[in-house]
UniProtKB/TrEMBL annotation:
Residues 127-218 form a coiled coil. InterPro entries: Neuronal_Pentraxin_Related, Pentaxin_CS, PTX_dom. It comes from the Eukaryota. PROSITE patterns: PTX_1, PTX_2. Residues 99-124 are annotated as: Disordered. Residues 1-21 form the signal peptide. The gene is LOC109097029. Pfam families: Pentaxin. One of its GO terms (molecular function) is metal ion binding. It comes from Cyprinus carpio (Common carp). Keywords: Calcium, Coiled coil, Disulfide bond, Glycoprotein, Metal-binding, Signal. The keyword Phosphoprotein does not apply. PANTHER family: NEURONAL PENTRAXIN-2 (PTHR19277:SF1), PENTRAXIN (PTHR19277). This is Neuronal pentraxin-2-like isoform X1.
Length: 434
């Protein structure tokens, strides 16, 4: 088109055809010269038909167009680079989400809510939005390039248009970088939340495994279910054991156990049984400088027992509602008897048996001054009065009789507040003490 324009100018300027001709010809002839493709044809023709060189204004316009084309190419390269970055971030986010779903614990995000301006929270929508933005940028650049080409024939490009173009390009690039940064931050937040939840889960599992290991060691340490002891080393109101089984209604009972204590004054309360309305239904206690006492329905009988020498002792107490008759045994020997201890009072059912504490209410409100300090084992209870020969056989380790109401077995005893259970073969340990 530009070559045709120059040719028309030459034709107009030649007038009578004196640019070139051959003498003797009938008419005027024009000489046409082939111009190679890509040759710069930006020139002007004066009124005399002579070709003039390019003006400074046209040269400036040409330089501006070249600069704008370079800027456009750079922006296109930047957009392609940002697309690659966005795809990489989207892939990383997808992997993070897949990892979180596989653990079943990552917090789900609400993608329907837009909290990043016009940037959707869904990574797929984010990529689509960025693609639309980049396409819009490309279209605007092409439109501006066409406007520049159209304006090159009409004069110099206005400075305000050039500045507006540069400002707009900078603004669009800034928006693109900001959104990519927001995506990176969201990915980092998701990773941190997933890591924290995984850490909490691992800590919980480790605690459970440690507890299971302790229980396995505890169980494996007992050669048989009854070969263990409960240790209550401090005089507090929070160390105690609890028997899981309760008592039926009874008209007689025998309670036997092994005790080891050196506490003074008084070893405390080896056991107590409380029921609703009567916390002292059955209590064995040695408190302060008083002798050991047996309480039934809050009635008291003093027992001639002494076990605070720091060695293992086998003690038994029996009681029957008939005349309130009771007996006290230590190491197989009957040391005392009496009567009129809560006569004709049946033992009430459905209460709580506590080892090591005296109950002021059923199952609680312990007094530290009445707490048992030491070790106990083989707490058994029967709903009848045992024969002296049976009690002596248990004390001499020649026989073992589990209680028909409360037997001493590991699964039947709970410990709290720092009280512990440990393996013990009571007859061997007692022999060693001797």
């Amino acid at each position: 088109m530009r070559a045709l324009f120059v040719a028309l100018l030459l034709l107009y300027a030649s007038g009578s055809g004196k640019v070139a001709g051959a003498s003797g010809a009938k008419g005027n002839r024009f000489v046409c010269t082939a111009v190679p493709a890509g040759t710069d044809l930006s020139c002007s023709v004066d009124t005399s038909g002579r070709v003039q060189s390019t003006s400074p204004q046209e040269e400036e316009l040409r330089n501006i167009i070249i600069q704008l084309r370079e800027t456009i190419l750079q922006q296109k390269e930047t957009i392609v680079s940002q697309q690659g970055t966005i795809k990489e971030l989207n892939s990383k986010l997808a992997r993070c989400e897949a990892d979180a779903k596989s653990r079943g614990s990552a917090r789900r995000k609400d993608y329907s809510k837009n909290t990043m301006g016009d940037l959707p929270r869904d990574p797929t929508e984010t990529v689509e939005q960025l693609g639309k933005t980049m396409q819009s940028l490309k279209d605007r650049l092409e439109s501006l390039e066409q406007q520049l080409r159209a304006n090159t024939s009409g004069g110099t490009l206005p400075n305000d248009l050039r500045d507006l173009l540069k400002h707009r390009l900078t603004d669009l690039e800034s928006q693109l970088l900001t959104r990519v940064t927001e995506l990176e931050e969201e990915k980092s937040q998701l990773y941190n939340e997933t890591t924290a939840h995984r850490q909490r889960t691992e800590n919980t599992l480790n605690s459970l495994l440690e507890r299971i290991t302790e229980l396995e060691k505890s169980n494996s340490a007992f050669k048989s279910p009854e070969d263990f002891k409960v240790s209550l080393p401090l005089r507090t109101n929070y160390l105690y054991g609890r028997i899981k089984k309760s008592l039926p209604e009874m008209y007689a009972f025998t309670v036997c156990m092994w005790l080891k204590s050196s506490a003074s004054p008084g070893i405390g309360t080896p056991f107590s049984y409380g029921v609703p309305g009567q916390a002292n239904e059955i209590v064995l206690i040695e408190w302060g400088n008083s002798p050991m006492e047996l309480l039934v329905n809050d009635k008291v009988a003093q027992l001639p027992l002494s076990v605070s020498d720091g060695r293992w002792h086998h003690i038994c107490v029996t009681w029957t509602t008939r005349d309130g008759f009771w007996e006290a045994y230590q190491d197989g020997e009957r040391l005392g008897t009496g009567e009129n201890l809560a006569p004709w009072h049946p033992i009430k059912p459905g209460g709580v048996i506590i080892l090591g504490q005296e109950q002021d209410i059923v199952g609680g409100r312990f007094d530290a001054t009445q707490a048992f300090v030491g070790e106990l084992s083989h707490f058994n209870m029967w709903d009848r009065v045992l024969r002296p020969i049976d009690i002596s056989a248990m004390a001499n380790c020649s026989a073992y009789m589990p209680g028909n109401v409360v037997p001493w077995v590991d699964v039947n005893v709970e410990v709290f507040g720092g009280a512990t259970k440990a393996a013990l073969e009571i007859c061997e340990d007692r022999l060693f003490d001797s």
